[in-house]
Amino acid sequence: MSRLWMIAYDIGDDKNRRRAHDHLQNHGERVQYSVFECHLGETEIVALRAYLTDLLDEGDSLRYYPLCQWCRGKIDWQGTAFPAHDDDFFLV
């Protein structure tokens, strides 16, 4: 079962920031410059955290916000933001 995660990063090194961006783009959708929304299962979030942690230097940071179904329905935005694209899926 997957859950929606908001993942934000602040990485100073250009090469490591690009790697983080590219890796996160394979797992979710970029909703702001350094913020992604990702649907991840338990093993996926563990592997993603391990990969991203290896990119951090002193002073860098990562934040992971789990979003429940209720929270997801309350996401709001202003300005040029747009809702993240959620692929339809069915649990059988």
Helix content: 25-40%
Radius of gyration: 14 Å
Classified by CATH, the class is: Alpha Beta
Helix count, DSSP H or I runs of 4 or more residues: 3
Total domain count: 1
Q: Give the second-level CATH assignment, the architecture.
A: 2-Layer Sandwich
| Largest sheet data | 4 strands, antiparallel
Which structural class do the helices and strands define? Answer: alpha+beta
Query: Numbering strands along the chain, what is their spatial order in the largest sheet?
Result: 2-3-1-4
Shape: globular
Mean pLDDT: 86
Distance between the termini: 11 Å
Instruction: Indicate the proportion of strand residues.
Output: 25-35%
Can you describe what's shown?
By secondary structure, the protein is α+β, with helices and mostly antiparallel strands. The chain has one domain (3-71): Alpha-Beta Plaits (2-Layer Sandwich). The protein is built from 3 helices and 4 strands, in the order βαββαβα. It has helices spanning 14-25, 42-53, 69-73, and strands at 3-10, 28-32, 35-40, 61-67. The chain has a 4-stranded antiparallel beta sheet with strand order 2-3-1-4. The model has no long low-confidence stretch (mean pLDDT 86).
